[in-house]
Amino acid sequence: MESSSGQTAARILLVEDDASIRRFVRLVLEDEGWQVFEAETARRALIEAASRQPDLLILDLGLPDADGKQVLAELRAWSSMPVLVLSAREHEQEKVAALDAGADDYLTKPFGVPELLARLRAMLRRRQQLGAPAQGSRASFGSITVDLATHEVQRAGQAVHLTPIEFRLLSALIAGQGRVLTQRQLLLQVWGPEYLNRAHYLRVHMANLRHKLEDEPAQPRHLITELQVGYRLVGLAG
């Protein structure tokens, strides 16, 4: 099956127990030329994910037979397919728990169709990039180029000095490939488990990174805060 652009259509598994929401989202996705499969329970979601092998999964957390985070935990035991959580749960603890459980992104109901589609397209692009052959140790976003092997960073061709902590933080965001990384994930990766209660470390070093890498640190275009959840790097190119 091909999309209207002539490319192979993305295969998306939609897991949602509300029939009206499921029907609405399906129509939106099919209008993009994507192929949609449906499941309304956690058990059916795992069966469909294993049998259909979709490119991406949209997951509601409030399923009738299990919490969606349980689906995530079981899925992550054997699959790295991108997962967008689409849920009415808006408390930060729920968002953090879902992202820590393995979700790639989180969108709260009610949602806007343009934002939903933009997030899905970004996730599909990242999946395609990750499936492509490795292109070396260089990454870029905006006017910034980073050599992960030599630890060299340039902004508009000029060398930028980053401290070891700043470079580890930037490397973690690059490795996230545009995903939301929770504060817990970043503290673990950059500082270690003994620093999990020191979120202020993360805020200070992120502010320093923005001052060194963003054109307008107070209104960053690339080093983005997901309020009370974590951070993501936007605009990354391999």
Cα shape? globular
Give the domain tally. Answer: 2
Looking at the structure, the CATH topology of the largest domain is Rossmann fold
Order of helices and strands: EHEHEHEHEHEEEEHEHHEE
Radius of gyration (CA) equals 19 Å
Side-by-side strand order of the widest sheet = 2-1-3-4-5
- Beta-strand content bin: 15-25%
Count of individual beta strands: 12
CATH superfamily of the largest domain: Response regulator
Q: Helical element count? A: 8
List the helices and strands and how they pair.
Blueprint: E1 11-15, H1 19-31, E2 35-39, H2 42-52, E3 56-59, H3 68-75, E4 83-87, H4 92-101, E5 105-108, H5 113-131, E6 138-141, E7 144-147, E8 152-155, E9 158-159, H6 164-175, E10 181-182, H7 183-190, H8 199-213, E11 223-226, E12 230-233
Parallel strand pairs: 1-2, 1-3, 3-4, 4-5
Antiparallel strand pairs: 6-7, 7-8, 8-9, 10-12, 11-12
Describe this structure in words.
With 238 residues, the chain is an alpha/beta fold. It has two domains: 121 residues, Rossmann fold (3-Layer(aba) Sandwich), CATH 3.40.50.2300; 96 residues, Arc Repressor Mutant, subunit A (Orthogonal Bundle). 40% of the residues lie in helices and 20% in strands. It is built from eight helices and twelve strands. A five-stranded parallel β-sheet has the order 2-1-3-4-5, with helices on both faces. Strands 6-7-8-9 form a four-stranded antiparallel β-sheet, with no helix packed on it. Helix 2 packs parallel to helix 3. The longest helix has 19 residues. The N terminus is likely disordered.
